[in-house]
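Hi R.,

Here's the chain you asked about this morning:
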Amino acid sequence: MPDSPRAGFFKKPDFQRLDLQRLSISMKHFVVRPRSGMGWTLTLMFLGLIALGLWPVIGWFNQPRLWLGLPWIAVWTYLIVLGCWLVMLIANRWLKASSHDD
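And here is the predicted structure, written out as C-alpha cells:
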C-alpha cells in the first residue's frame, strides 16, 4: 500500500517542519491603511457613501413623494450608485497616476 497513489493522502502532516515564525510575520497585517492624503480622502469618500445608505438617512427619503415619476427612495438609491461609480472613477485615476508598478 505505501506505493499506491493514495498513500500520501493518508499520511499525517509533519507540523514540526512548519516555519511558524515565517507564517506569523507574513500574516501580521489584518487591515491595510492608506498611506497618502489621497488614500485617506478616498477612504473618507467611501465611508461617506456608506453612511448615506444607512437607515437614518434612508428614513429622510422614504417618503410617499415622487420626483420625475420615481419615489424619492429610488432616486436616492440611484444617487448612491452614481456616487460609488464616481468615487471609483476618481480612485482609478488617482491611483493610476501614483502607481509605481509600471
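One quick note: The first helix runs from residue 20 to 26.

Cheers,
M.
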